């Protein structure tokens, strides 16, 4: 059964968001390796990890990522069930691939496929 493996928290001010989540939950938050210039911050919660990302647009939602064996297969399942693909398959070099989808209620969800050979 696929499990939630990651989450993204969009923020207009990633530094302010970092302070908030460190103060409230005592999470360990540091610059995301290789993406420091873009302002991405990696979050360690002691459970499912995530990141604070620069907000792309007003109202951008928090996104949870579900680990699957194949993002292409599960993106097809999403579409067959009435959802849609918002962002097609993209690589995160050295980590894996993701696809961003919407369910039938316009909720965003990410599909994540681990693959250390992703380029």
From TrEMBL:
Domain of life: Archaea
UniProt xrefs under CDD domains: SgaA_N_like
Domain VOC: start-end pairs: 3-114
PROSITE patterns: VOC
Listed Gene3D superfamilies: 2,3-Dihydroxybiphenyl 1,2-Dioxygenase, domain 1
Pfam families the UniProt entry points to: Ble-like_N
InterPro entries reported for this sequence: Anthracycline_SecMetBiosynth (IPR052164), Glyas_Bleomycin-R_OHBP_Dase (IPR029068), Glyoxy/Ble-like_N (IPR053863), VOC_core (IPR037523)
Name by which UniProt lists this protein: VOC domain-containing protein
Native source organism of the sequence: Methanoculleus thermophilus
